[in-house]
Amino acid sequence: MKKILFLLIFTCSASTFAQKTIYESSRFDELSKHHKTLAILPFLATLQLEHKENLSTEELDKLEAKEGYAVQNALESYFSKKKSRKGFRVSFQNIKNTNAILGKNRISLKNLDIHTTQELCEILEVDGIISGNLTLHKLISKGVESPSLFDIITGKSDYGRIAIKVSDGKTGKLLWKFEKTMTRKSGKNTLDIIESIMKKASRKFPYDQ
Hints:
By secondary structure, the chain is of the alpha/beta class. It is 40% helix and 20% strand. It has helices spanning 2-17, 28-31, 57-85, 95-104, 117-124, 149-154, 190-199; strands spanning 20-24, 37-40, 44-47, 91-92, 128-136, 160-168, 174-182.
């Protein structure tokens, strides 16, 4: 029992140490000075599921796309709720409009990463973009069950890792980036997890008023 308790404490401590990192450009104020509208892109998801080999390439692509769009939707919901309470000095393009414009320009999750930030901002007519990627061990969009004690001890209770980025449309420069491990404490579905990790950023979101 003592060994199990020691392993649990050690695992939790190590997980906490590696949970999050945050970056903000020293030129953030300069480059974002005239920003008025940001677009939230669907995220690029990579699934590292158990028994992934049982899925066809098409099935895997669909699942990854579903998770990527779920994060896009959750971020829009988070920003909308916070904007109504406190406000930001920028507005956020409706994601339905974002996705429609991308579709009209034949841009999908399959070729999103071959386009530069400047190209995407010009197409979307925005000043900057919020984008990112996530690596998932579980399908968080449909909700996840509470992990077993064994999963917690062995470190398999983590859902994966997410990186959220803000980039300047004019220069293409990375302005802000937040990376975090998603754990059972983050929530049980995409909406809960996004709200939790955004609240726990070690620095406030840089467009806060």
